[in-house]
Structures
1.
Amino acid sequence: MALLEYDIHYANGESTVTCRVLEVDSGDRIRFKSKHPRTGIQYKNDTPFDDPAAPQANQVFEVDGTTEAFTVVKPLTPATRIHFDCGEIAAAAPRGSGLQSWGIGNGTPPDF
């Protein structure tokens, strides 16, 4: 299963807790969520999923509300993470193309 790390920091009478996902394993599940209309993601060159309904490599995947949970089939660590870009799907673009990148993204596992 996924490896999560909680970093507990206490200084000057204040505490913070930060959670990081360090690894994802086969069988873990990932879902995506956005309130912004026409949000899309695009994994670069690979995908952690084998479900054809899940985000595929180099294809724009629409995130409309909360997606279903997709099962990871490829164990990943920070050294082997797969990056994805986030952006808005162009209004006239057919499904799977036309992502106008917001210049941000993340990956699996996330990089925080």
Note: Residues 48 and 74 are 5 Å apart (CA to CA).
2.
Amino acid sequence: MYTLRSLALKNGKNTMVELALEFDGHRAFVIWDSIGCGNYRVKALLEIDPARLIRMGECERDYEYCGEIELPRPENN
């Protein structure tokens, strides 16, 4: 599993977050939430710009996102 660290906007304030990261071809997604549903896993994904991802250190699975991610607010859904 890949890990992403980034500055995020949460409730109008900047905060550092660590999220799971997935790739689908040339697209990149952070996993905002996931739940099990029988034999399936339902994931809430946020698409991000893969050009803004930078590998951190020597580990190939850790990335930093050089951009801002606006996290969804449940009351807006």
Note: Residues 2-76 form one domain.
3.
Amino acid sequence: MQLTGTPEEQLSQVVAATEKVAVFPLSSSQWASARRQLNDSLVSYGIKVKWDPNGEGLDIYQISMGGQSACFLWETVPGTSNEGSLKPHSCS
């Protein structure tokens, strides 16, 4: 993954890429593979995407970059199983 722009723009790019991971069912090998590929592509930027950072079984993605973290909750569109978006969420 190639990131460009300000840190805020880069975060938006990472959120968009994370949404492409979140559409897969958590139990699928596609989800695990896509998440691993996403993290592998971000390692050179010092960015990491972690799922369920608090170990609560919630569909929360924590994006850590530049010593700071932001969390996002995956919310599916009602009536669908794989359409949705990441919404800002508390990490605690």
Note: Residues 7-89 form one domain.
4.
Amino acid sequence: MRLRFDSGLVIPKRTAIRTACVASLTDLLISSGTGYLSTILELPAPIRFGDPEDEHTINDLVSGRSPSVGIALGTQRFQSDSPDGTSLRGRLTVSAYVMVRQLRSVMAGVAGDVAEVGVEPILEHLLERLSGIQVVDDGVLVLDTEEPLLFGVDWQIWEQQYQVRSHYEINRARNGTLIKSVSADHIVDGSPATPVRTITTLEGS
């Protein structure tokens, strides 16, 4: 099914932003021949961890593969640029998650060692590849925060949050039909005469 959007894109702007983020990180994949990431996941929504059982969720999510990165789009806040609400500016939160399995120690998972890449090198590589990239319209990713979310027995999760601004112009006439004239029959009550048809042109002269 082919979709239409007022932006002129063939996919929603959120989808375009997520896709651009993932594409910017592909050189970090082991499969690229130059990287070390086991997988890059497109997540349906931001994730929050606060329970020991969350480690099982992580393990299922990435099928035990470490290190992994996930990209998710969160809240988008809007501000109107027009009285009728058809010109909007959006500010979207993009989250990048670094998921590392601690094979030897917590600090090895954080800083890395000779045997494995830790969280800190991955965070900096994400910053280098995501911050400042143009993802839609004239909107670029701007790094906002970086913080740890979970230190578990096996896994640790860190999150980078980016902000990206975008612009929406709503086309109220996207499905409208332009009416150029109106045809009408006029009948006089009680008259046996044939109805009179008139055509009124709506175009300006």
Note: The first helix runs from residue 13 to 25.
